Amino acid sequence: MTIKLKREEAIIIIQYYYLLNIDIEQRGNILVANGEEVVDKDDNWLVNEIYKVENNSIIRNNYFFSKLVRDEYLEFLIEKFYKSKVKIISNEKLNIEELHSCVCCGYKISFKRNFHNICPVCYWQDDMSGERDYSSANRSTLIDYRLKYENNKDMSNEIYLKYYKI
Ligand SMILES: [Zn+2]
């Protein structure tokens, strides 16, 4: 039997998985990134500070899934974490064609084109350079970078489930 979930329920379930399963270092790093003082002067973790109940919401909220993330990816994470088959019932449909595609790999990575944006799929940094221009940010031309990326990509990586591509 497949359990049906609202998208917001699926996200909460995933966030609680992370809350209960990440290690002290991952927890500490999230708290530091959020301005919490969880290290002493010798850079040791302050365990009691890290595991304060007040920090739970910071940890959970660190695992944020924008509307760009496909329902199928959230279903995949729940199956991976909990071994439960779920189906997300979304009432809101994204207009995928209007999303911005990475100029290199073609995955729909943002709502609009942002200068200096680094693609989470292929890591091309969008510096608006043309196909044959040398891009110093990427140490390559776009054409060469794409070719290298296409030849080396591993389609079993879950990142390919995360974003749309037309
Ligand atoms: Zn890309």
Write a compact overview of the structure shown.
With 166 residues, the protein is an alpha+beta fold. It has helices spanning 7-21, 24-33, 47-50, 56-62, 71-82, 142-152, 159-162; strands spanning 3-6, 86-89, 100-101, 107-110, 134-135, 140-141, 164-165. The protein has two domains: 3-89, no CATH class; 96-165, no CATH class.
Task: Describe, in plain words, how this protein is organized in 3D.
With 166 residues, the protein is of the alpha+beta class. 38% of the residues lie in helices and 12% in strands. It has seven helices and seven strands. The strands form three sheets. A three-stranded antiparallel β-sheet has the order 3-4-7. A hairpin with a 5-residue loop joins strand 3 (100-101) and strand 4. It is globular. The model has no long low-confidence stretch (mean pLDDT 96). The structure holds zinc ion.
β-strand number: 7
Mean pLDDT: 96
**Which parts are unreliable, with pLDDT below 50 for 5 consecutive residues or more?**
none
Q: Largest beta sheet: what is the strand line-up?
A: 3-4-7
Terminal CA distance reads: 31 Å
* Class from secondary-structure proportions: alpha+beta
- Our count of domains comes out at 2
Ligand roster:
zinc ion
Spell out the key features of this protein.
single chain; about 170 residues; alpha+beta; 2 domains; three-stranded antiparallel beta sheet; two-stranded parallel ribbon; 7 helices; 7 strands; binds zinc ion
